[in-house]
Amino acid sequence: MSLSRLIPRAPLLLLLALGCASQRIPDPKVTARAYASAAQRGDADAIYALLTPEGKRALGPSGTRQLVQESKSELGHTAQAIQSNDARVEASAEARFSDGESATLVLEDGRFYVDAASLLPARPRTPSQALSGLRRALARRSYPALMALMSSDSRGALESDMGALVSGLEHPETLDIQVNGDAAEVQLPTGHRVLLKREAGIWRVLGFD
Predict the structure, then answer these.
(1) CA–CA–CA angle 57, 95, 145 (5° rounding)
(2) Whole-angstrom Cα distance, residue 17 to residue 85?
(3) What is the largest CA-CA distance in the chain?
(4) Higher pLDDT among residues 73 and 136, named by residue
(5) Which of 10, 116, 133, 194 is a plausible cystine mate for 208, CB 3.0–4.6 Å?
(6) Who's near 66: CB < 8 A, 6+ residues apart?
(7) Residue 124 and residue 133: Cα distance in Å, rounded?
């Protein structure tokens, strides 16, 4: 079992909660030094106290102690790396918007800046980066992010298909809807077929092609 599940290797990335602008931003180096000291001692309780609420829920005190016990050697190397002169501590925060999108903010010189990669269209340089971007877009249910990752041909075809679907549904009250109990089907003028299903008295879209 790897300690990477517990806390990342140096440079240590600390996720800070966004607070009011008037509040003083904590120095991430303090937490980094505290973790390095706890890692050097193999102090599972101290490491657990430094975890995020999500990390605490995922591991629990006993899980943290087990990881520390199994990873003493790795802990020592990590502590040395954090305490070295070449170590660099980076602080970041995530801002979530009402539409489900989010932006990564990076702390530099006592001020948060927007990470361009979190808002601007993706520009993956390798296939693995493209797949990583696809995963993020799907996880966030982000249609704009998904479109930004698609090739021009695929994007054009999808936009055309979606546009035709929107056009075909422009006057739903005039469509010939075939209802069979709790199932319904409608053929749109644009050639699309939409399937519906009634669940607990509510009609929902089952699928379309």
Answers:
(1) 105
(2) 27
(3) 73
(4) 73
(5) 194
(6) 1
(7) 8
CA-to-CA distance for 38 and 51, rounded, in angstroms? 12
* Domain assignments of the chain as residue spans, ordered by start: 3-114, 127-164, 167-208
Lowest mean pLDDT among 46-50, 56-60, 107-111, 113-117: 113-117
What's the predicted TM-score (pTM) here?
0.41
DSSP assigned state of 88: -
User: SS3 of 11, please?
Assistant: coil
Going by C-beta distance under 8 Å and a sequence separation of 6 or more, which residues neighbour residue 114?
Answer: 103, 104, 105, 106
Looking at the DSSP assignment, which residues form a beta bridge with residue 51?
Answer: none
Q: pLDDT, tens digit, for every residue of 156-208?
A: 888 888 888 888 888 888 888 898 999 989 888 888 888 888 888 888 888 88
> What amino acid occupies position 193?
R
H-only helix segments in the chain? 28-41, 44-50, 53-70, 72-83, 116-119, 127-139, 143-149, 152-168
Choice between 19 and 69, residue whose per-residue pLDDT is larger: 69
Give the pLDDT of residue 78: 79
127-132's contacts with Cβ under 8 Å and 24+ in sequence apart are none
Question: Would you say 156 and 148 are in contact if contact means Cβ atoms under 8 Å apart?
Answer: no
Could you give the CA distance from residue 54 to residue 80 in angstroms, rounded to a whole number? 26
| Cα–Cα dist 148/122, whole Å | 6
